[in-house]
Amino acid sequence: MHENNAALFPTYARFPMALVKGEGSKLWDDQGNEYLDFFSGLAVTNLGHAHPAVKNALLEQANRLWHVSNLYHIPAQEQLAEQLTAASCADRVFFCNSGAEANEAAIKLARRYHQQVRREQRYEIITFHQSFHGRTLATLTATGQDKVKEGFAPLPEGFVYADFNDIDSVKQVINDRTAAVMLETVQAEGGVHVADPVFMKELAALCEEQGILLILDEIQTGMGRTGKLFSYEHYGIEPDIFTLAKGLGNGFPIGAVLAKEKLSEAFAPGSHGSTFGGNPLAASVAHAVLHTMQKEELPQRALTMGGTITERLQTALKDNPFVEEVRGLGLLIGIACVEPVAELVTQAREQGLLVVLAGPNVLRLLPNLLLAEDEMERGLAVLTSILAKQAVGEGI
């Protein structure tokens, strides 16, 4: 049992273990125990741990140059921006360090576009109940869950909330102050709720009709996780702005805001910045991640593997009264249950499988995009076993 370090703020309810080594889909703790990782550092290590191409890119760049400042041209950053825009509907990129920072920058970009470019006093952002957008003051306010807001009042004004997959709910909160609608195509932390294709089409059309920007938070759904490089591709729409982090650096901190050309004027010199954003180390690593993902067609692999896992679980658990539903997109999968499942996370860990919650009643599965078939079978065996025990009252 690992005790809490008295020098750290107790902001995390940590598992009683210390992971010290990783390779591919496997992790080892400081006691030598091996685990199969269906967690991926919360959808971060999409290429698995210590991927050779990513590791080599980091080491090669570390031997040349770590950091300079965005006051200078950074060739690796410019190359990465070109890669991202070539692979997406975006024309411009801003780099930062995390998902929360990317979402914060997207909010700023939307407001400044309306106020400085279009000369309209629009500032409100519509987000959705059960969403999660980060831990800064603005992004926790944007988050549609009260639990993350407790004790942080006063919160910034300018955020209103609608019901996910309900276009009429969105229409009811639109007014002449509305600057943007911001959402995840899969509400991952909020319970693995997948956006309905009809809703997404209607929302995109409504935003265009009303002159409202459409912002997609792709922090967890981007970088191949859902079976497309970016999850908006599933819906046949193009956001005005979307954000990336997590899988973009495969464990090295980096975030990005991608946007259409019309927004470029809003982020003029001096309007926004980041000391470390897109520095040579981060940009080189992300370049290797994106190149590997595209070269090996890993989003398609995630779509196929994720479909197989979902179908296998749905079949195995269809008569299990403890399981309400298996849902998800690609390798972002939720097993929704009728009771809290925190103890199941412990049981899985004791059998060598790492998973995470998505709300109190949902197990979230986030294996890496290179998961081997035998690893998939091992993970499925553990999951179906512990869930079968719940059905007959042997578990919690």
Low-confidence stretches: none
> How widely separated are the two ends?
21 Å
The class by helix and strand makeup works out as alpha/beta
What would the average pLDDT be, to the nearest integer?
97
Shape: globular
Report the total helices. 11
Sequence of secondary-structure elements: EEEHHHEHEHEHEEEHEEEHHEEHEEEH
Q: How many strand elements?
A: 17
Largest sheet: 7 strands, mixed
What is the topology, as strand order, of the major beta sheet? 4-12-11-10-7-5-6
**In CATH, what is the homologous superfamily of the largest domain?**
Type I PLP-dependent aspartate aminotransferase-like (Major domain)
Strand content: 15-25%
Topology-level CATH name of the largest domain: Aspartate Aminotransferase, domain 2
Which percent range fits the helix content? Answer: 25-40%
Summed up, the domain count is 2
CATH class of the largest domain: Alpha Beta
